[in-house]
Amino acid sequence: MNKPAYSLVPFSDFLHLKELVRLKNQTVRLNDWPIEVKGGIYILCILEGKYEWIIEQKRYVLYPNDVVALCPWQQLGSPTNTLEIGSFAWLKLEVEVFEPSGELRLGAWSAIQENDQKLMGRLMVSHAPMVLNQLKQVNDLLTKIEQELKQAEFAYQTRVNQLLDELLVIIVRQQSQQQNQRRDFPKAFEQLEKMLRDNLDYPWTVEEMATVVGLGSTAFTEKVKAYSGFSPLNYLINIRIAEAMRQLRQTEKSLTDIALDTGFYSSQHFSTTFKKLTGYTPGHYRKRQTGDSS
Q: How many structural domains compose the chain?
């Protein structure tokens, strides 16, 4: 395929920025857009035209300002290998670590905090493939990145990396908001609860839980209280205690291991919280459940 990538400055200055392409296609090109793994974090924005592509084995119709964001192992392409008339831009980032489990480490270039990167990875995997409608900010940010690379003014490396961070944050936020708009809160809450149960050892904050369902912290807290009767953090503690009770009944793990597995920062914190909510210490609860009276 003849797709000229921008190389306005030596890409050795941005080893993580593998492709930055703006393509205007004026004729139908056969055998030029096969379904394939794109690699890296791949962000594509439609500028002109209408495209019918397969993204992760599902057909999508894309229009101007629609955006696709793929994880490194995901596929995109035309079901007929044909590239239609129109234009679009894309960017590909190579990151330090990104696993299907959701583990994400962007690399030293990013200023996004470690915990936010972890949550970003989980959200990108859980929402995959990310197909966002009418997100013009992505093209605006790609244009700004191109301008920084062209002009190469003072501190442009820093500015490009800031724009890349902003691009990722906007995409993840928009996906969460879009998901929330498409479904009622009980379904969004169900997905959140599954993510919490799958990652109980993660130090969740209210802000992070709100992000999963695409709400601000205040609105999220109000909805959780109305829906469950608990504040978000108390609801999370109840899930942790329920899982701890299961492990105490069904496993021989040490109390310390169970405490850490279920998100408590120490065995003492675990024991105090467990007794407050159940009336028993974890050790006493295990003895009662297993019939061990010794």
A: 2
